What does this fold into?
Amino acid sequence: MACADLAANLIGRHNARQGARRLFAVLQNRRLNKVRTSLAQSCVLYLIAHITIHLFILLQHLIYSIVDVVMSELFPELAQVPRARPLPNQFGPRPGI
It folds into this structure.
């Protein structure tokens, strides 16, 4: 059952038409369109900033990985140096569990 039929059955066909016209008029209101436009622009700017941060983090990881590979190729003796144990991560799983 369509929304229009449901509204017509619940509140009557005349009232459903009046409600649809009023809703259409609200959606066409210039003042409300400006609010919706600014809200949409804010959402787009937030998404752009969020994506930019993630791209920066990925780029940083890529650069560190490339530097690691270059250093291990230029100085193979670095592979023999024992690596330090990573610090325990308070949010991750505990070692030995």
Notes: The chain has a mean pLDDT of 76. The chain has one domain: 3-75.
